[in-house]
What does this fold into?
Amino acid sequence: MAVERPRGRRRPVFLAGLAVSIVAATWFGSSWVPRPVAREAAIWALRSIRIAHGLAWPVAAAGAVGLGARVVRGRRAGCPRPGSARGLLAFGSTLIGLAGLDLAALAYQARAHRVVDRPRIVPDAWAKSARPADLYLVVLGESSALGEPYAAWLSVGRIVEWQLRPVFPDRNVRVDVLAEPGATLERAVARFEVLPRKPDAVIVYSGHNEVSGRFPLGRATPHYLDEVTPLDRLSARVASVSPLDRMLLEGIDSQGKDGPPRVERRRLVDVPACGPAEFAGLRRDFRARLEALVVGCVRSGILPILIIPPGNDGGFEPNRSVLDPSTPRADRESFEREFRAIRAAEEADAGRARESYRSILARHPGFAEAHFRLARLLERSGAFDEANRHYILARDLDGLPIRCTTDLEDGYRAASTRGDCILIDGPAVLRKATRHGILDGRVLHDAQHPTLIGHVALAGEILARLKARGAFGWPPDRPAPALDPAECAAHFGMDPLKWAYVCYYSQVMYLGSCGLRFEDAERREAARRYAAAIQFMVRRVPPEKLGLLGDGVIPGVTSTPR
It folds into this structure.
């Protein structure tokens, strides 16, 4: 006669089978579920887990305290309460489990975000067959280090490799460009962890993507005090103390970043992409990783070459501008009306507009758009030094920075003091190629990517510094190479089709950034000029006539040819 299993024992088996079925369905079904659907489902699941985790801690703690007090009172009165004791055990076990989850999340994050300071050598066929005298360099960074928009043909690393070969004719010179588009410094340096052999030097060129490489472009953080809800404050408090909550937030941001940006019309008075604490954490992490890399390389006998990434200060407006968090809604709306009125009157009376912007900045010194508009007017009036100062402030105060800020530039300078290395001040190098010391579309195609003359100038500075220190046994009788952009373009075969692609890439970059601002007329105009230049390339107009060898804004193109 069969013995029926008690119903209470069936429940754990059923729940375990259900969990296994869900995991299996997710694993095997991910291959045919459309990627956007899977992404939204993942975001929904992570948010649900985050809410459940945030509620579990206070509920379990309150239950444990309440039942614990009840059990103590019962024992003192000589009236034991088994139900309360079982409940206390359940809530206590829940708290222990939550603490275990946080500890596991902390260990996972420590492993996933470990600091890489020196390579682990895994020889490949080239390293095994190479002569001991071979000269090996590695380039780490983002799309600018990769060479965009010229990445398929040349980059700073490729130009350095080309020029080092005649300096060391008896060596096999190899430069591995391990840069990755959109990479943060953390992701860029992770490529340094495994190499085929110990490099003689490592070039680091990264800093534009520390925010956009981590968060979705449409991310908005509660900023103004009259809009911050108690739930927002609770969420921020939980994220500050719980490693698991931070890991879930990171997963949500990662899923949103990988998908297409949400189309949302921005406002003139906007909110930042991340809060002050997050910005401060990014700066600390950036500096710590750079310093660890320099120290580790010096100890391993590797020469670090740090390039401070130059950004387009004068030709690319800030994406978001924010006011002080204490500004009430009525004042924000009044400020927006005032600012738009000044903006509309710029052409009619530039002098009065300058003074109006100065008055605005005296009241709201952190508003990036006011710094940028004032810098434009100062540049037109010939006050180039003051204009450059306000352009840099506009870049640094951007609520969605996609250019290397001054704080990160200072991180490079601080890291360079931790060991013997070469520091290339990218903004200072490119300013020498401008007319008035303002980094704009004449030396950068878009927000971050240098023109050909910019790549040549950065590579030339590296070669000059290597020569000055006699690096790698540089022969004393061999001077540093004198680079010419036209010669470089000819060497790497920059034909009209390649120049057309360069213009197309720059056009796409401007069009892709239009939705990041409250107005996009200037970026669409820049994209139109590059589109017009493509037509000239098809007609085989020499690139120097369009300014492509050193004037990325293409001033000679005013209309598309028929």
Remarks:
- Residues 134 and 172 are 5 Å apart (CA to CA).
